[in-house]
Write a structure and sequence with these properties.
- The complex is a heterotetramer.
- Chain A is α+β, with helices and mostly antiparallel strands.
- Chain A has 14 helices and eight strands.
- In chain A, strands 2-1-8 form a three-stranded mixed sheet.
- Chain B is built from three helices and seven strands, in the order H-E-E-H-E-E-E-E-H-E.
- A five-stranded mixed sheet of chain B has the order 1-2-5-4-3, covered by helices on one side. In chain B, strands 6-7 form a two-stranded parallel ribbon.
- The two termini of chain D are about 25 Å apart.
- Classes of the chains: A alpha+beta, B alpha/beta, C mainly alpha, D alpha/beta.
- Chains A and D meet through helix 1 and helix 5 of A and strand 1, helix 2 and helix 3 of D.
């Protein structure tokens, strides 16, 4: 069978962050996955070594447009620990609120994208409509819809006014109602079930073995959540639960994300209602002492790790960013094996990858290495084979 | 499942592999050598029940290149296995067969630092573009773009 | 002489091609508007499909590398011509002047041509997305065409004629066939949705999987003609269902003077096609895309057997002469 | 080329071009914040379909290309290839600070900095990322530009007048070949 190259999704209106991967397929079945990350490689890690702590935060914020707060929080948290800086409680609460709002907007976005992948545009539109409520809250609090710029080393840059808190609280009940509706839809809507159930299955052992993180791992019953296992901000002091599921497929990942939406609403409500008074930042020293730290953070997509090393100057010596998507690729590569080609978008979307709108999937047949377009004979043969299988 | 991991417990288990020190309440750093890293990972997996790899960090400290494997398990203790490699011929054995997730990190580190992982045949470019010149590793401290080298992009137009 | 002139007016102006273009664009607008409103959006302005069409006609035509230009230019025209011809046999104001015994079969045949054109375009495009889109289009055709044909032939068996206009006339004297053949009606609706490649059967042009399927390499005029073809197929398809199952453009009783019959029939035509469109749009809004192997399973297991059952029921009814 | 006293059909086409701008989205290696804001434009809150704007997957169907983000080395050649696939008349919008100058990524080793060093850009939208209303505004700006281009009979007038930093498209095509 000649090599068939299907670069799914140049200008993909749904997926983010440029990543390209080749799918090595045997006919209709997938054998393995090959990855190319160079489309969006910018050299942020190098640039971070050349900018001081004040200037590096806006840079890290732009690692990713969806988890922008995650990257700055995990970095600021690490640097503060190296400086042995205790940041005020109010600042920690504000960071938590923004973090959970970000999780909400990311999960709503994901649900819409997953629906779009299976052509269910109505759900796509609805979730993104409800996402606007979260965006409004974030915009009121931070002044921007996507890059919030809330963090600085030593605290947060903007305080929450009582009006902002009340406006945010007023939006939550309706959002909660909508999320409940989505829970209902995901459990009952036929086309969603048909396309999500049993797709991209990952057992608990496999999830552990291949290092899946975040909702992908939790959907397989792996009970890991950096918010609980390595508590940061105020997660140790507030009531919330880790959501897990045992399905292990796309359906399970959807359920975990919707469950986390409910938890996030709970956390945000608790934090807004119990927002302590006080300072929002402390003065941070310009330089950090020599040291190294592994800073962990549960971003919407999974565990985000920054390995930071300082050398006594006002710049980091090294910051190594491990994004959740990178950690999840190995498991995606595994759960795509033996799946149908048409399920690639939804399985890939199920880990909520940060992909971009560039060529992404290339199907390469394993038997021959010849590149080219399918010939008519081939096409005939294929459709005949297909047709025989139908009968 | 084993009990809470303490420094003494770790020291006892890995005494012939390297030296351990507690660097944070939940992190123990073990300094080892490239020759021991596979054994170290195996024993950390078996004796300390670390079932997941957080990440492999690479760093250039000016004199040597460092690789740090961060593993954790149900006990929530992070075990960091650090090793140093010489700058002129940085080579380490691959761990992708015993730790499947490390495959992708190894390719990335190979691109950015030029560390060769013995036993990997598929260390092709993953994070730098296909026109990137060989033997240029951007995250090394002494690397700066050479003015006349073509790094990719569009030929003929200097941007 | 006047007859010939009238026929020419019928074919070219009203209710012929001119009306067809206007109505096709209008239905396309309405479809988009309904979908937008159901998704709580505002939706496009009324002239949108027209503006899109004109713009596409005015765009540059790009020939993909290594493509036979002549064939690539011709295929969209063939598809357009096929559905326009099919329209002439569908009764709009009461009775199609071109009707003959067997025009139902001709219409069904002509309606299949756009799918084959898409397949040819996809294969000729030398683009992998288009090729896959083409394969999927044909695969899908094999799945839905049999139940769709069966469902549309049951009215013919029931009425004992192969002419659409006569089936309409039969319903005028007896009863709407939707009451006698509800299964056939549903199968026909599903088949039409699949034929028009709308969600949940938009597998051949699944945007998130294969960009735009066979459409990917089409530009300018070719794209415009293919768009027009799908829009006209929507008119023909809904008119066909309205004629075969919903009594078509005829009142159960005759009016005098005679021209009033035509006007009433035309109003009924508009009303019934809009009703069919509303159902089709609702299906589109309420579902996601299914996979081709799932469609295969559903199509052969349930839809085809439902159509078979319907044929059986009709044969039994005819045999027992329940309806004279 | 159209002249101001064009015939009815040409005037109709000009009108249609203004009323039906189809957009294709290209992420040239940015942080995807701009992308989600473009997608947010499709949503009930902003609903650009009411202006006749559709986001199309295939560049062959598009009139306007929205480029998000600075251009990475790898994406530069792809960006130009995709741009060449769009049929004339075509317009390009560069979104955000990165699209204009590279923004926060200016001067990084894997970046060519700005979109207009690869393809000619007709409109820039400010912001990091631009709000959806600003993106809609950028499309409207493009349409106004289109109107002026129609009045002048082509894009060439902008080079001589120096109104917009537009490079000769032929020049760029030759450079690629």
């Amino acid at each position: 069978m000649p090599e068939v190259i299907v670069p799914i999704g140049p200008h993909h209106p749904a997926l983010k962050e440029p990543v390209n991967f080749k799918v090595i397929a045997d006919g209709e079945k997938i054998i393995r996955l090959d990855l190319d990350l160079s489309y969006s490689h910018r050299g942020i890690e190098k640039a971070a070594e050349q900018r001081d702590f004040i200037r590096v935060l806006p840079l890290l914020e732009r690692v990713c447009g969806i988890c922008s707060h995650s990257h700055t929080t995990v970095f600021a948290k690490g640097i503060e620990e190296l400086m042995q800086l205790e940041i005020p409680l109010r600042a920690q609460y504000v960071r938590t609120i923004i973090a959970e709002l970000e999780r909400m907007h990311s999960h709503l976005l994901w649900l819409g994208v997953a629906a779009h992948e299976i052509g269910f545009n109505t759900l796509f539109m609805w979730t993104w409509r409800d996402r606007e409520a979260v965006q409004d809250t974030l915009e009121e609090m931070s002044g921007n819809r996507v890059h919030y710029g809330m963090n600085e080393v030593g605290g947060v840059r903007r305080d929450l006014t009582p009006e902002q808190v009340n406006a945010a609280l007023a939006r939550l009940p309706q959002l909660e109602e909508r999320v409940k509706k989505y829970i209902d839809m995901v459990n009952n809507q036929k086309t969603l079930l048909v396309r999500f159930r049993g797709i991209g299955k990952l057992s608990k052992e496999e999830a552990l073995k291949y290092g899946a993180v975040g909702p992908t791992a939790r959907a397989s019953g792996v009970d890991y959540d950096a918010r609980r296992d390595d508590p940061y901000l105020v997660y140790a002091d507030i009531p919330w639960n880790v959501v897990t599921d045992t399905n292990g497929d796309v359906y399970g990942r959807t359920r975990v994300r919707i469950g986390e939406l409910m938890e996030s609403i709970r956390i945000v409500r608790f934090c807004l209602e119990n927002l302590p008074e006080g300072q929002i930042r402390v003065n941070a020293p310009k330089t950090a002492p020599k040291g190294e730290i592994l800073s962990r953070y549960e971003a919407p997509r999974g565990e985000l790790v920054h390995f930071i090393r300082t050398n006594g100057t006002d710049k980091v010596e090294r910051v190594d960013i491990r994004t959740p998507t990178l950690a999840n690729w190995t498991s995606v590569a595994m759960c795509l094996v033996n799946q149908n080609l048409a399920d690639i978008p939804v399985i890939v979307a199920a880990i909520d990858p940060c992909l971009s709108c560039t060529s992404r999937i290339a199907v390469v047949d394993n038997h021959t290495r010849r590149a080219g377009v399918i010939t008519l004979d081939e096409l005939r043969k294929r459709s005949r084979a297909r047709f025989q299988r139908l009968e | 499942m084993i009990g809470p991991i303490t420094l003494d417990f770790v020291k006892e288990k890995i005494q012939d592999i390297g030296t351990a020190e507690q660097v944070r309440s939940n992190r123990i750093r073990i300094t080892t050598t490239p020759g021991h890293i596979r054994d170290a990972i195996k024993s950390v997996q078996e004796l300390l029940s670390c079932d997941r790899l957080l990440t492999i960090s690479a760093a250039d400290n000016g004199k040597t290149l460092e690789l740090i494997y961060h593993l954790t398990g149900p006990h929530r203790m992070i075990i960091s296995l650090a090793l140093e490699l010489p700058r002129d011929a940085p080579e380490a054995p691959t761990t992708s067969d015993i730790l499947p997730p490390s495959g992708i990190y190894e390719r990335q580190i190979h691109d950015l630092f030029g560390i060769l992982f013995q036993g990997r045949s598929d260390l092709k470019k993953i994070i730098l573009n296909e026109d990137w010149p060989e033997n240029e590793y951007p995250l090394r401290k002494d690397w700066t773009p050479a003015p006349d080298t073509f790094y990719g992009g569009i030929k003929g137009e200097k941007v | 002489m006047t007859d010939a002139l009238l026929l020419l007016v019928y074919i070219l102006l009203f209710p012929g091609f001119f009306f067809l273009f206007v109505y096709a664009l209008f239905l396309s607008y309405l479809d988009r508007k309904i979908v937008a409103r159901m998704q709580s959006r505002v939706g496009p302005p009324f002239y949108q499909p027209f503006a899109d069409l004109i713009k596409m006609l005015g765009k540059e035509v790009i020939d993909p590398d290594g493509v036979d230009r002549q064939v690539f230019n011709t295929i969209p025209l063939v598809a357009l011509a096929a559905v326009m011809t099919a329209y002439l046999y569908v009764p709009v104001t009461g009775y199609s002047p071109l009707a003959f015994q067997g025009d139902l079969v001709v219409v069904l045949y002509l309606m299949a041509i756009p799918t084959f054109s898409l397949f040819l375009l996809g294969w000729l495009s030398r683009n992998i997305f288009s090729a896959i889109g083409g394969i999927r289009a044909v695969t899908q055709l094999f799945i839905y065409e049999v139940p769709f044909f069966l469902a549309l032939l049951t009215p013919a068996i029931m009425a004992g004629t192969w002419s659409i206009s006569e089936i309409v006339a039969w319903q005028q004297h007896n009863i709407w066939l939707v009451f006698l053949q509800p299964i056939g009606f549903i199968v026909a609706l599903i088949g039409l949705q699949a034929k028009l490649e709308r969600t949940p059967f938009d597998i051949p042009e699944a945007e998130t999987e294969i960009v735009a399927g066979s459409w990917t390499e089409l530009t300018g005029r070719r794209l415009a003609f293919m768009h027009l073809t799908t829009e006209i197929s929507l008119v023909v398809g809904s008119a066909l269902i309205a004629a075969l199952f919903l009594g078509g453009p005829m009142l159960p009783w005759a009016l005098s003077p005679l021209w009033l019959n035509g006007v009433a029939g035309f109003c009924l035509f508009l009303f019934k096609t809009l009703a069919v469109l509303l159902v089709l749009s609702s299906i589109k809004v309420a579902t996601g895309r299914i996979r081709i192997d799932q469609l295969n399973e559903i199509g052969w297991k349930y839809i085809a057997s439902a159509a078979m059952v319907q044929v059986g029921i009709v044969l039994v009814i005819n045999y027992l002469r329940v309806i004279p | 080329m159209a002249v101001p006293s064009a015939g009815v059909s040409q005037r109709l086409v000009n009108w249609a071009r203004l009323k039906s701008p189809w957009v294709t989205l290209f992420n040239s290696g940015g942080c995807n914040a701009c992308d989600i804001e473009v997608i947010a434009c499709l949503m009930p809150r902003f609903d650009i379909e009411r202006f006749g704007i559709l986001v199309k997957g295939s560049p062959r169907h598009a009139d306007i290309m929205i480029v998000t983000g600075h251009v990475t080395l790898k994406q530069a050649s792809r960006l130009r290839r995709v741009w060449e696939q769009i049929p004339e008349p075509k317009y390009v919008i560069a979104l955000g600070a990165c699209g204009a100058s590279g923004g926060v990524f200016h001067g990084l080793y894997h970046s060519v900095n700005s979109v207009d060093s690869v393809i000619p850009v007709d409109a820039f939208a400010v912001g990091c990322p631009p709000r959806p209303d600003e993106i809609i505004n950028a499309v409207v700006t493009c349409l106004n530009l289109l109107k002026e281009d129609i009045a002048h009979g082509g894009k060439e007038w902008r080079q001589t007048n120096g109104i917009k930093n537009i490079k000769n498209t032929n020049e760029i095509r030759e450079a690629t070949l």
